[in-house]
Amino acid sequence: MMIYAEQNKNRGSFTSVAKRYAYFWEIHAYLQRRFEITPVDAILPSVTLYALSKKLTLQGYDSVIMCVRSNNIERSLEYARFFKVCRPDIKIIVYGDIVSLLPRFFMQYDCIDAVVTGGDYEISISSYLNYIEDGISQKLVGVYVQELKKNFAGSSIGDEWLFTDLDVAPHDVYSKMVIDKREMTITVQRGCPHDCSYCLATKMFSSMSRMKDPQDIIGYCMKHRSKFDTYRFFAPVFTIDREWAKDLCRQMIAAKTDFKWCTTTRYELLDDEELVDLMVNAGCYKVSVGVETLGDSAITIGRRNKLDVLGRVAGYVNKYPHDYDTQTGMIVCGLCMLGVPGQSKQDVIDMFSLMEELKIRIRPTSYSPLEELALKSDLTVVEIEKYDKFTYYDGGIENVSANDYFRLLFNPHLYREIFQVGDSSFIESGFRQCDRFIDGKL
Predict the structure, then answer these.
(1) How many CB atoms within 10 Å of residue 272?
(2) What pLDDT, in 10s, does the model give residues 176-230?
(3) How many C-beta atoms surround the C-beta of residue 403 within 10 A?
(4) What is the pTM of this model?
(5) How confident is the model over 72-115, as pLDDT tens digits?
(6) Terminal alpha carbon distance of the chain
(7) What residues form DSSP beta bridges with 264?
(8) Nearest to 183 by CA among 172, 196, 167
(9) With contact defined as beta carbons under 8 Å apart, do 337 and 300 qualify?
């Protein structure tokens, strides 16, 4: 059995739909080709601990695979403990983004038999399921096995991951949860060489970038076109290989695909007008880029001097004004952070006013230094859950109250009211003039 346990109530379950496809259903699609797997998402109202335990106790399951994330740790551990009471012989293996960050935290629990510690989830879990069947430890990869007290190095499946099996996944339930659109997530690229302290992409899928074959992407999306309004092309850095991204877009244009899609990348890797043109013509309506912060903090050294690049990218995109009703044109969504160590009020004013001038949608989160967790001992579930990027608070911004901090987080366009600044704040701050950024002249 493969389970995604209930999450806490910090945020609605609909916010995790995209990750459910990428972290749960795509892993399931690979595993089900090799093993008999019963997938269960506890987001469904019919799923209860009683019902799961009854099924495990009365039917012949030999293992439970649990997808654990920072917002469902407590419930996952509750499940595991009770499963072991009902079936002491059953083997429980855990994986997920928070497991990749904090494998030792999960190793301490007697109710967990194996912890995925490295490599691609599919091959790590497969190796442990094979071990349960044949007892041959030499083939184990990417897992820590409690009974052996040993960790095995991870391995990769290259670009052989699979997309969600929509005959099994409750996509209709997910679509009803997400407001205004039926969106499907497929992973088109894995791996990230940047390993940022506030991101788990590298820890989950390594620093080695891998891309799916364009024909696999196009074939899957067109096959299921009637089920969805849009697709999310899940990728840590969609344009890390510009030639691959251009080839995908050209093939989509040639195939006359009629669906809209969105993705994520770094803005300095989008500094290519031809690439932006191809993405728009291939149906991309939104690209999210990591602006992070403009302050002189340790996490942005070297990026403050790339504002000319951000300006050029905005200029390329702003040739295609976005229309919400028809989903034509393109939006740049700027992923930025509040509460970064050393961040000042002026840094936030500079950042938000620049993004407004460049017509970049502002999407802030709270800076949560996830890597700090890995350095701490005696962690608790409550402490880990505090690091949620929408609710984390540890001093915030100097001379800004907690109330104003979260007002900014919830509605960044209140910054002029909160900081009592006028429309000229950006230019007065000493940065180059915004109109030159917009025109792409820098």
Answers:
(1) 17
(2) 887 667 899 999 999 988 877 777 888 888 888 999 999 999 999 999 999 998 9
(3) 9
(4) 0.90
(5) 999 999 999 999 999 999 999 999 999 999 999 999 999 999 99
(6) 55
(7) 288
(8) 172
(9) no
